Amino acid sequence: MKKKKTFFGGAIFLGLGAFVSKALGALYRIPLTNILGGKGLGLYQMVFPVYALLLDFSGAGVPGAISRIIASLNANEKEQKAYNYLRSSIRLLLFFGLVGTFIMLVLSKRLATLQGEPQAFLSYISLAPAVFLVALISCYRGYFQGFMNMIPTAASQVAEQVIKLALGLLFASLFIYDLPKAVAGATLAITFSEVVALALLYITFLIRKKRLGLIFAFNRADFRPQAKTIIKTTIPITLIGILLPFSQVIDSFLTVNILSAYRDDATALYGLLGGAVLTVVNLPVSICYGLAAVAIPAVSASKTREEENKNSVKVLLYTFIAALPCVIACFFGSRLIVNILFRNLPSSEKNTVVNLLKLVSPCILTLSLLQSANAVLIGKGKLYTPVISLSIGVVLKTILSVVLLKIPSLNIYGSGIALNACYFAVCLINLILIFSRKVENASKRTFRRQVTG
User: Fold this and answer.
1) With the CA atoms of 332, 334, 337 and 341 taken in that order, what torsion angle do they form, in degrees rounded to the nearest 10?
2) How confident is the model at residue 47 (pLDDT cuts 50, 70, 90)?
3) Would you call 126 exposed, middle or buried from its count of C-beta atoms within 10 A (0-12, 13-18, 19+)?
4) What confidence score (pLDDT) does residue 375 get?
5) Segment among 14-18, 37-41, 143-147, 170-174 with least mean pLDDT
6) Helix, strand, coil % over all residues of the chain, rounded to 5
7) pLDDT digits (tens, 9 = 90+) for 377-393
8) Using CB atoms within 10 A of its CB, is residue 192 exposed (0-12), middle (13-18) or buried (19+)?
9) 123: exposed, middle or buried (C-beta count within 10 Å: 0-12, 13-18, 19+)?
10) Nearest to 316 by CA among 147, 445, 433, 441
11) Positive or negative CA dihedral for 343, 346, 347, 352?
12) Quick check: 179 and 120 in contact, CB under 8 A?
């Protein structure tokens, strides 16, 4: 009973934290959209695919990797080894985080120019330090999640959004006379929010360390083998995290440039899909994030095949139950949702958002199941399986986007169709593989030997 409570308790805490975080993010987009308008929102949204991609390269896969490693440790030495893995991951991610920040700073003007909006370079500069900060944040979140303690992650996520909301609206309002500076001010708020999140996680770690009353000693000789284990575990999880942001980077280059050939509002259309519609879609998806995050350590720590399968089915079933009503609500209530959230948009843009939300509402279910299925596969030891399925989906999405965006009668709706096809295909492939009988027990045993060895 204790383990059952831990499983669902962790999922509830993290799911609630992610939901509140996304809700605050969606709430933030309402006044931000009203301040910046469609053009400003397009500029704001344009930097995030590259930012997300750099985050993945610099360690966004670390929470899942570290939580899997720690969950697999023997109980007798778990605290000391977990501390060593935390220290090793911090040393490792310091380098990758700094490289990510440096790349974003140096390439800011070039990236903005290639995207068709040179004015976006200021936003790249103000957001660049956040790459380094998130790399360190990932280490602490993975550490706590490995012990099935999801509260620090949830609390830090909420803190991020509160700071981003307060400072983002303040900075955007202060510099509204110059739209690129207003957008850069909104992105600068994200950097400040990550500073607060990192401080909160570090303080929580110190409190936990003091409460345990244990003296942890970091053995420098352990760094190399532990770093090797972290990298081997992180690479596939990072690739999983990179693929969708990578496809969004492709979208950020393709969409505006293709639509600009026959539309004057290409940037605004891109902003409405990425900044308004997908913000609404991602809100209910975040409810299921807690289940996905808990699935990795829970499935990984399962002692028997029966327990592993039982936890896997629970994650997927509860994901389906949570996501399906949200699909129905977004499809049939799209106009009401848009009128409430984006009431100050011009009527033409509001109608576009309504139609796009109806079109992509099935993504709520498929994307929720996709993230949970990925987590289950990782927990089972099938680390590279989600990479393959996601790669297939991204290729499908890119091909469809190129073809459909060139059709004037479809324009931005072509991107919505491509999204539906991508998530459905990946979700279907993952579910088939999860329920196949070919489970790699040998790879799981090998992984545990590497971690505890």
Assistant:
1) 170
2) confident
3) buried
4) 84
5) 14-18
6) 85, 0, 15
7) 887 878 888 889 999 99
8) buried
9) buried
10) 433
11) negative
12) no
What distance in Å separates the CA atoms of residue 365 and residue 358, rounded to the nearest whole number?
Answer: 13
When pLDDT is cut at 50, 70 and 90, the band that residue 1 belongs to is: very low
Amino acid at 271: G
Quote the number of domains for the chain: 1
In the block, residue with structure tokens 């500029």: 43
Closest alpha carbon to 369 in 312, 328, 412, 331: 312
| Token pair 């081997």: residue | 232
Which range of residues forms the domain containing residue 207?
A: 2-452
Do residues 450 and 393 touch, judged by C-beta distance below 8 A? no
Whether the Cβ atoms of residue 230 and residue 92 lie closer than 8 Å to each other: yes
Structure tokens at 263: 């539309």
Write down the H helix ranges in 301-380: 305-332, 334-341, 347-360, 363-380
What is the CA 270 to chain-centroid distance, rounded? 20
| Predicted TM-score (pTM) of this structure | 0.69
* Distance (Å) of CA 286 to CA 26, 301, 335: 12, 24, 22
Q: Confidence class of residue 442 from pLDDT cuts 50, 70 and 90? A: very low
Q: Is 29 or 120 the better-scoring residue by pLDDT? A: 120
- By C-alpha distance, which of 399, 351, 446 is closest to 254? 399
Euclidean distance between the first and the last CA atom of the chain, given in angstroms as a whole number: 30
Contact call for residues 136 and 167 (beta carbons, < 8 A): no
Rounded distance, CA 285 to CA 317, Å?
A: 14
Q: For residue 415, which amino acid is it?
A: S
- Whether the pLDDT of residue 86 is over 80: the answer is yes
**245-303 pLDDT, tens digit each:** 778 878 878 888 899 888 888 888 888 888 789 888 988 887 777 777 777 777 766 66
Mean of per-residue pLDDT scores for the chain = 83
The DSSP secondary-structure symbol of 115 reads: T
Q: In angstroms, rounded to a whole number, what is the distance separating the alpha carbons of residues 390 and 334?
A: 28
Instruction: Indicate the SS3 state at residue 187.
Output: helix
Asked if residue 392 lies in contact with residue 429, where contact means CB atoms within 8 angstroms, the answer is yes
